[in-house]
Amino acid sequence: MDNLDKDIKDLEKDLEQEDVIEETKAANDDISADEPIVEDESEDDVNDEDCDAINEKSSDEKKKSLFHKKEKKKDKKDLKIEELSDRLMRNMAEFDNFRKRTDKEKSQMFEAGAGLVVEKMLPIIDDFERGMTSIPPEDAESSFVTGIEMVYKKLITTLSDMGVTVIEAVGKEFDPMYHNAVMQEASEEYESGIITQELQKGYIYKEKVIRHSMVIVAE
Amino acid sequence: MSKIIGIDLGTTNSCVAVMEGGKPVVIANTEGVRTTPSVVAFTKTGERLVGEPAKRQAVTNADKTISSIKRHMGSDYRVTIDDKKYSPQEISAMILQKLKADAESYLGETVNEAVITVPAYFNDAQRQATKDAGKIAGLDVKRIINEPTAAALAYGLDNEKEQKIMVYDLGGGTFDVSIIEIGDGVIEVLATSGDNRLGGDDFDERITRYMLSEFKNTEGVDLSGDKMAMQRLREAAEKAKKELSSAATTNINLPFITATSEGPKHFDMNLTRAKFDELTHDLIERTVVPVQNALKDAGITASELGKVLLVGGSTRIPAVQDKVKQLTGHEPSKSLNPDECVAIGASIQGGKLAGDAGAGDILLLEGK
Description:
The complex is a heterodimer. By secondary structure, chain A is of the alpha+beta class. Helix content of chain A is about 50%, strand content about 15%. In chain A, strands 1-4-5 form a three-stranded antiparallel β-sheet. In chain A, strand 4 (about 205) and strand 5 (about 210) form a beta hairpin. Chain A is elongated, with a radius of gyration of 34 Å. In chain B, strands 1, 2, 3, 4, 10 and 11 form a six-stranded mixed β-sheet that branches. A five-stranded mixed β-sheet of chain B has the order 17-12-13-14-18, sandwiched between helices. In chain B, helix 4 crosses helix 10, helix 5 crosses helix 6 (about 225-245) and helix 5 crosses helix 7. The interface of A and B includes residues 9, 36 and 98 of A.
């Protein structure tokens, strides 16, 4: 991981700038990046032979000894290890969260897709219904019109069986979660806040609103 | 340590993003949409609505529905609702709260820190108000960064050579053009200009007007008084505008648009991109002078620009892109979603501050 390599170099630079290393504090903190990181010609001294000498973690101690410089380097490595371990744990937690979310999204994919398709069909259903309401009375009984009505009924039944339902509007209290108010009007018949007209039907597919009802609300 | 989210707190729409696994991700809201309208409403029952629901009830509750509050940030403007006064930062905080909640829902953890973007021309009072809004919303705002700077970060320009960049931002309601200079770990704003009453809605309106006049000419019917018809026309106009960004012609088909004594009438019209460009030509022309002013104030010619970035949904319009190319001589960068790239840039900055996104931090010099 490129990021990790870069991060190690960052850590190196930071650690060498600090005069005093507070191990316990630093071990739990991430690098504070509020100050800009100053460019530094520090070297990567991971391969220093001193690191072979002491293997135990002594991060809780701040020894002043003859080998102060050696201690400092060892502590820096421990700090590095703790920092990277912390980062690794965070990455793993992030990945776990990502996996859970992806699984959830996958299982919802089908419904999301179906909902999109239904949404695209709605304007066609709207136009169909508009056509149905403008049948001239003299043709109303013709077998052609009857046939079209049968097709329409079949369309609505198919949608309903799939889990598509119409949102109730006229006479109901306006609710922005289900309705989209495009206009207000004075009304004798309805109280303020009640829907007086439905301009376009709203639909719910499997508990999700795929199109809000377009309505006019009483003032 | 929790994540630092990046927020584009826009005049018309807001967007939130976060770094995940080293890559920026835009977070969808509870309605499943990747941008949230910057609209806040107080309902009759005292409930607070933010985003799409607030928009949907706006006409029934105009007095208590607030949009475009960004225009008042940093001023003494107050909104009075139910005998209580709210400052612009308190209203903005409500929008930020929703974005925060959506981010927490997505990440599965609490979010306490954010980077928020502001226009490059925002003064100290406006920036402080934005920071305060974050605080009220429960967010520690680690940085306020300029929108054009965020766009540059999103395009990864902080890792490139030193150069001067123009950001052409034509979005929901405002046009902003900025010249910024990237160099040596520092981004500086050289000049800004714009038109704060120009946006996507203006383009829709031109198509709607054209549809009305065409229908009057061919059918002799004036649809402007028919509420339902007007609603359908407006929606169809917006849809046509979007289609013409990728097609040279589009068909607008509205059966049974109205009923007359002769029977029902239908609206069926083909709209070409050429016609659309003709109808909206003057709108695009309004961006020319601000662009020229910005170059002049920055003391450079267009040829000295390294890159031109497009931000805002309306920059998807081919005629806009052509105009930008004509004005600057550069092929504009548009590979990132123009509605989202500012939030993405903010999240990248958030990631750098959190120590996620790799080496080095970039010093942002907020010059005017």
